User: What shape does this take?
Amino acid sequence: MKLAGIVKVVLKITVIGLASCRPFNIHIEKNDALNDKEAIINENNVPDLWIGPLTTDWIVKDQNLTEFSSVILSSEGGTNNVALKIAENLLVQRRSAMVVAFCYSGCAGILPFFEEIEFVDEPSVGFHWNALIMKSALTSGQLNQLDNRENPFLSNTQKRLEAQAGFDSEVWWHVQNRINVRIISLSKSQDSYQEGSVKWESKHNMWFPTSNQMKDLLGLEFKGSVCADNPICIKQRVEQWSTNSSVIVGDTIYKNGKALGKWKQL
Assistant: This one.
């Protein structure tokens, strides 16, 4: 996803590698939009850098890392099938992640597959749809439309991988309950359903949970804190998050930078 808004931010962070315990410097410059950035890191004894849209190139780069290595993670997300391929690779490679700047959509969806997670300097972490959320949004009529209950979202694959990771897939209900995805229509393409053949909408574009919500509702374990924990950080970033669409931060709904009230459970 691409978030609108003009911003020029420079982050200079010194972090301790989760596996190596060696300090290194990260310099991330974000210019014009949150996902337009340049990252420069010290080349000595550092984890790999996973920045930008989710890509299978990450799996290729991962082959050059030693066992239990850490990666620096900052991504606006990507397609569902790529996220699941990365998740499957992480089950084998057992990586730790240091999350900087932001982690949205598919990036947030692969967090359960890391051995350890550290949030550095209050990154923005946002959840919206994934395979299981999309399947839960199908009406009974739409489910019957699918051949042999096959669906275009690879939900069975996601559930299998999350079970292998020891993650409770039922927690995604908390995300769907807030963003409220609705499937408008399904259409077949070349005798199979593809992500592009699904039309859908959501009441709110994304949920930015607090650290406590990620721990208590989503069952994630991590070190550090996120932007949604800090009112000052929220004030600085919420207009970018909510330009032309509403989002939920913690339990507060925002649109175009303005608080609209508290989210109420469906």
